[in-house]
Amino acid sequence: MIEIQRYDDVERIRLASWGSRIAGMDVSAYLVNGTLVDSGFPRSRGALARFLDERSVSAAMLTHYHEDHAGNAELLASRGIPVLMHAITRERLRAPAGIRAYRRVVWGTPRAVTSLPHAPVEAAPLQFVFTPGHSPDHQVVWAPERATLFSGDLWLGVRARVMHSAENPYRILESLRAAMALRPTRMFDAHRGPVRDPITALGAKISYLEETIAAIEAKIAAGWSDRAILRTVLDGDEAVAIASRGEYSRMNFVKAVRRERAGR
Ligand SMILES: [Zn+2]
What we know:
five-stranded mixed β-sheet, six-stranded mixed β-sheet, globular, Metallo-beta-lactamase, Chain A, alpha+beta
């Protein structure tokens, strides 16, 4: 399923599968200046291919390796479109790790990307800005001429408390500050779409994360258990924690703070 929305010079390519609809999720790629930002998930391959038939796409930039963003890198490469990405993204795509059943249902199974043509470093006037935390390779795409930020999975809403087991809230915070320093006037989130008043939205998320991390740290210092912190600071967990068998949960937020503190 594909829906195209136009925002001035930006096209939002909103992609969903039956599985993702049921899970209440969709993801968007964006086309700006002939450059595609992200590529959707493996199950959206046919829809994306038909979209590419109708447009001229000169390059693609992938924000990170997750299958709902980089899931059609191989399709782009097979059409000779230069696909730009971080070195870690490239490494992950060459040998994708297995993903759990629910993610295969929602997004489809990623294929190994073996035929990436040599790509230039940037698709001017767009630039990558390294913003790790959500994943170790995460980069936002910045269009300085129109102060437009394609934020990938950096923002995801102010109070997004569910984290992947590998996420690092401290690095997310640093990355949000780096994005804020760009002073974007337009922002396009990979799941939420266009975000009104990006500086306020980024600022609200920074405050929320700072306060929540501080609250979790205080409870850890006072000897509280992860379960008690989850209940008190984050109001318990969400259904996704069970559906994903803990891969995505609010508990991961608590565990990440404990892990990062211990590592200092
Ligand atoms: Zn992601």
